[in-house]
Amino acid sequence: MVMSLDLKNKIEKARHNLHKLVEHNKGRLGHPEVIRQSMALDELINEYNRVSRNQTRA
Q1: Tell me, what's the pLDDT at 17?
Q2: What is the pTM of this model?
């Protein structure tokens, strides 16, 4: 649960950074910075899902 809250905060920060990068790069979703940040956000979401799934099983 604490881990989940920390992950939620990291996800929110990564999402915000992604949004800012898209704006900065004039909506070009294929820009390398945008893709990198999107992948980082995906990893955080995957980690959150793994933690949530494991807590549900326990």
Answers
A1: 98
A2: 0.88
